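Hey all, quick one. A colleague (J.T.) asked me to put the fructose -6-phosphate job into the tracker so the inputs and the structure tokens live in one place instead of scattered across chat threads. No bug as far as I know, just bookkeeping. Sequence used:
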Amino acid sequence: MCGIVGYVGKRDCTEVLMNGLRKLEYRGYDSAGIAVFQNGEITVAKSKGRLDDLEERMKQDGAPIGQVGIGHTRWATHGEPSDVNSHPHSGGRVTIVHNGIIENYKEIKDFLITKGVSFDSDTDTEVVARLLDYRYNGSPIQTISETVRDLKGSYALGIIFADHPEQVYTVRCESPLIVGVGELESFIASDVLAIIEYTRNYYLLEHEEIAVLGRDGVHIYDAFGQPVQKELKTADWDVETIGKGGYAHFMLKEIHEQPTAIRNTIRPRIRDGLPNLEECGITLEVLRAFRHIHIIACGTAMHAGTVGKYVIEKLACVQVTVDIASEFRYRDPLVGEGDLVIIISQSGETADSLVAMRLAKKLGAKTLAIVNAMGSSIAREADMLIYTYAGPEIAVASTKAYMVQIAVMYLFAFELALAVGKIDETKCRSFVHLLEQTPDVISEILNHKEQTQYIASSLITADSLLYIGRGLDYALSMEGSLKLKEISYIHSESYAAGELKHGTISLITENMPVIAVATQKALWEKTISNIKEVKARGAKVILVCRKSDVVDKDAVDMRFGLPDFDDMLMPMIAVVPLQLIAYYTSVLKGNDVDKPRNLAKSVTVE
Ligand code: F6R
């Protein structure tokens, strides 16, 4: 998704903006640009492509020199990626960068055309720049406040006015934006990561709040231009935490951070060997009140929710439905009072999940958010909240966030099962104890991961793959398959192993490798039969199962042996080789592992 950075201070603004934009690269983008006041005039540099292309352009044309400006990485929505569609966009006296979507841009554009305004680009952003300019009466705050009342959609804007060369203005509606405060300098950014090397202190802007940044500090106003006082927050991540820490890619680093992420997430929620989610607003009484649970999320987070469904239904015997957030909203969901809706989201800003959560609330359900990004929109709007403590996840492909989402799902299921009397305290303690052991078991895999590279090297020539499994292994296959396709660009699908024979098995040839996951003892024989079915049709079979499992040599071509562990918690263990296989396949194919094409880390448009 697009990234915004803005700066007012004493430093070289171009350098601050470019540094900040580099930190936001993980969000995904296809063009970039900056606008800086140089000798009192707004100077724009922008280019299609990566930040390196913009740097190159600035080497040729000269980089703007100044101390006040705004910058942007664009992920195309309205208009193709091109120099002209790149931000910043100017509308005369006003120049802006924009994150999000203006839904009624066409209407506004038509109106402005009737007023004689003409346009250079295809973007909704230029429409906002021109509307601001059309309305501009010398008072930036009043102009912004009046203009945003006409905008529909989700957006965050960084704005500079030609006649206010010492200030940067900003306003947000739905799309995330923070305002950083340093010593005689201030910043705006889509993510704290962009400015953390300069300051840890920041304000979280609320819906339609407007901020004015100057060297004398930051002033914040509500939607009607009235001053508001806000709490200054402090980010507790250090620069080392957000660097690669010696790993070749963020994804590999984040895979290795999983044991720590689990410990950080579960420890504060365990008391006397039992799950304790009271601090998140969840007590045994609260849990007993729910008759149905809906889990809503997207992509990897939805896969974590699918694991949660299996575990909650098995342990607590409470019915759970899992919905893709973008589908939930449009299918007249049967949700209401007495239901619990769990929203799972790493970023806490995914538009589909946010809108689905609002709908669930409107329908009378209680909402529980499981979120990694502190202070994000989903975190703020949910009735109850469990933060996952994975730390910043930079690689677009989610790994450690998925891991802690599942860890929370287990804790929740244990507590619910206890609340509804399906397990007693002794049983619950034994489950919690197992969960506490998962970090060590995962570390064991990470110390012996060579086999995953070998498996990856056998996949790089494949055009298409299948992942199969049953029960929890099927839930896990979905995640394995998504991970592989998003970063290796090899097509893959996950299938319930028993469902293959109802159609999909016709795809099997010697050119279609099959990755089978078999960690559930009760389903072992059945999954092995399915493996034999595909093997008999020529497939190369890669099996992920326990080291101790005895498998007929002719049934598989390669295998990854997992340490022995409890069936129910196996998804947390078995996902690690699947993540590594996807990672090494992408590396071997020479792909941009951390920033796969067409993808964005935080998807703030519906
Ligand atoms: C895949 C991936 C995505 C996200 C999805 C939801 O690796 O990361 O599928 O899981 O876009 O994002 P969040 O969790 O931020 O709501």
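Adding what we noticed when we looked at it: The pocket of fructose -6-phosphate is lined by residues 298-301, 345-347, 350, 353, 397-398, 482, 486, 602-603 (CB under 6 Å). Residues 43 and 71 are 12 Å apart (CA to CA).
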